[in-house]
Design brief:
The chain has 422 residues and is an all-alpha fold. The protein contains 18 helices and no strands. The protein has one domain: Growth Hormone, Chain: A (Up-down Bundle). Helix 6 packs antiparallel against helix 7 and helix 11 packs antiparallel against helix 17.
Length: 422
């Protein structure tokens, strides 16, 4: 499959009400699970366990490294098996068990092992959820449904952040771990509610109606897809700049103002960003087949370096919260556009989820390295130098995308734009 613009795809298939609601619930509950403990773990280890920032960065990176190792096998597995729902449910339960183990026995070995387990399980979520969605909707309605998925994902993140802030304030920071475990169990239940008989497993791996029955391409063809490679490189730089940014802000505030301010700010940051993401995801879903993928993604790339630079000019929690709202634009657009562009670039190959896993492996590795580098720079040069490094990495990603990534919108996309979002 080349990186040229794909042709128009077949008409969309409407979702049954059961599957529509199941996907809504799955994305809502999985929101808190797929990211693991995230910045809350960094603050908890710094304040409650008195770990060094460099050691925290190393432990935070372990989860990303585990995801990196398992991402390609997970994508290949999703392409080849018919038990995609069970894969999501099993991974969610593993995350829940790892969270419980971390807070119950917070030794270095357990925290380290828990992050590995969360990272390995997390490799399954993106390709499996994308495959289930594509297999249910077909290519024509995929972009709009991904937008709806992301809206519910961000709503779930916002709700989890509200609950995390309240639980940490009225009880203890440790209750956040139990919240994650509960969300994991609800995610597993939602995944198994999807009607497995309604999933077209050929379509789910990138074989559309026009190519059904054809021999699928090899992984080598994907490696030769220049558009896919350039998209992966640009997105890797995006995450190199983005992954450690919020945890660094949380650590900075914890060091300057104490854990009470840091935990409250972290929850507020996540809530504000997620609320913005809900609107951005809905807007992207409505415009993705009209204005194209590239213009929307370029906006997402542009706001990230601005956010990093603004973090260097103030330590005020209120101003930092306002700056963090920019994350809602960049991450909201990324969540919708990335899987859609992967599906565009690999249509007909039969390896859509393998490509998604491979690309995610690369940018997941960049995110893991982001935590390690940021922790080291913060220990030796301070937080402002860290934010400047992160801003520079993300700006380079925007340049790569603008210069080398093609538009992937189907040539005749008018009917797609009117496809039902559900």
């Amino acid at each position: 499959m080349s990186s040229h613009q794909p042709s128009a795809v077949a008409a969309a298939r409407p979702l049954a009400r059961r599957n529509r609601l199941a996907l809504d619930g799955l994305n809502f509950f999985l929101a808190d699970v797929r990211d693991g403990l995230g910045p809350y773990l960094a603050i908890w280890l710094l304040v409650s366990r008195q770990w060094d920032p460099a050691l925290i960065g190393a432990v935070m990176s372990v989860s990303g490294i585990a995801t990196l190792i398992f991402q390609v096998p997970a994508g290949a597995m999703v392409d080849s098996v018919r038990w995609k729902r069970a894969a999501i449910a099993s991974a969610a339960i593993i995350v829940a068990l790892a969270a419980v183990a971390t807070v119950s026995t917070p030794s270095f070995a357990v925290v380290f092992g828990g992050q590995i387990a969360m990272g390995a399980a997390g490799a399954v979520f993106a390709p499996a959820l994308a495959a289930v969605t594509l297999g249910l909707t077909g290519p024509a309605a995929y972009g709009a449904r991904v937008g709806r998925n992301e809206a519910f994902n961000h709503a779930g993140n916002a709700a989890a952040a509200v609950m995390a802030g309240l639980l940490a304030h009225f009880f203890s920071a440790e209750t956040i771990f139990w919240l994650l475990a509960g969300m994991g169990l609800l995610s597993a239940a939602s995944a198994m509610t999807v009607d497995g008989r309604a999933i077209d497993h050929d379509v789910a791996r990138g074989i559309d109606t026009a190519h059904r029955g054809e021999r699928t391409s090899s992984l080598g063809v994907l490696i030769g897809n220049r558009g896919l490679l350039m998209l992966t490189a640009a997105v890797a730089l995006f995450h190199l700049g983005n992954a450690a940014m919020l945890p660094m802000v949380g650590q900075k505030l914890a060091a300057l103002r104490g854990d009470d301010v840091a935990f409250a700010y972290m929850s507020a940051c996540i809530i504000v960003a997620q609320v913005v993401m809900i609107g951005v995801a809905a807007l992207a879903a409505a415009r993705i087949d009209i204005v194209g993928r590239r213009p929307l993604f370029l906006i997402g790339f542009a706001v990230l370096p601005v956010r990093g630079l603004l973090y260097t000019i103030t330590d005020d929690p209120v101003l930092l919260l306002a700056i963090q709202s920019l994350d809602g634009i960049g991450a909201g657009l990324f969540g919708v556009l990335f899987p859609v562009m992967i599906a565009d670039l690999t249509r007909g190959s039969g390896h859509t989820n393998l490509a998604l896993g491979a690309s995610s492996m690369i940018w997941g590795g960049a995110a893991a390295v982001s935590h390690a580098i940021a922790g080291t720079v913060a220990s030796h040069m301070g937080y402002d130098a860290t934010f400047l490094f992160l801003a520079g990495a993300s700006a380079l990603g925007g340049i790569v995308f603008a210069v080398a990534v093609p538009e992937t919108r189907p040539v005749a996309s008018g009917p797609i734009a009117s496809a039902p979002a559900s």
